[in-house]
Amino acid sequence: MKHITIKDVAKRLNCSVSTISRAFNDKYDIRKETRELILNTAREMGYSPNPMAKRLLKQCSNQIGVVVPEFINPFFPEVIIGIQEVFLKKGYQVLIMQSNESYNNELENVKAMENNMVDGLILSLSLETKNVEYYQNLIAQGFPLVLFNRVSNQLETHKVVIDDYKWAFFATEHLIYQGYKKIFHFSGPAGLTFTQNRKNGFIDAHRKHKLAIDQHTIIETGLMISDGEREMEKLIQNNNIPDAIFAVNDPTAIGAMKILKKNGLKIPGDVALVGFTESQLAQLVDPPLTSVAQPTKEIGRTAARLLLDQIESKGIFVPQTVVLNGRLNVRESSMKL
After folding, report:
1. Cα 251 off chain centre by
2. In the chain, what percentage of residues exceed pLDDT 90?
3. Judging by DSSP bridges, how do beta strands 327-329 and 290-293 pair with one another?
């Protein structure tokens, strides 16, 4: 089906393109009757304005881009719900893409968003993202960009995180207060900022209570259930089973839980578990998992408000890092029997 253009409407009415354009834009110098005739004719012909042309004219698209690493864990979808709450009320469309933990995919996603003329971007970096030069150039050009959860200290832009150090400290201290001595940490990938912060919280809780940490206490795993399963299998095979595990997130804790139960070990009788994220699975597994709750929707809403302010201020802003609070939800998986 042929796309009807402004030229087709002008040809049908035997008038100039400029007259049609003035009618569409409700200019003062066109008679009411003429405007109504033009609009009615355009409707009958099936004309609709070219959205790209409108964007170029307005120099904005009323579209926001969001790029996240993955959709497997519920954390990112919940953050996106918060982002949408803010922007949909303001008349923006939210375009969502995922990098699948690939830097190349992430970069292609960002470029696709640029080509689609989004007014700004909310981004959580992939596991592979080390080179942030492209984003530094975007920021230097005044392109509105907000980072959340997985951020880079090399980028001078708005960031939204939670206090990972503090809540990792409290989570570890909870296990210590329960009387556990041999506590392991399943840490995340080394390149992530929150991995280091949660690891530091774990270490400092041990220092405060004068508990020893050796090279085997902290185990770099990953972020998926399969990562927790793999590392727990290794510990059992090596007969190096801890009293308790503080995991970087819920999926790795749940992976460890599956293997412990498969091998006949009781939770928390033999090994206590604490996660981080407060996913819906934390309350569904047996026993329910102690976990640090992150305000996922508030992370999304905060990132959206920061981006909106930056867009409306035309790129003039002072970069800030907003640190949101968490909450330790204590459940059966970590309570000493």
Report:
1. 16
2. 66
3. antiparallel
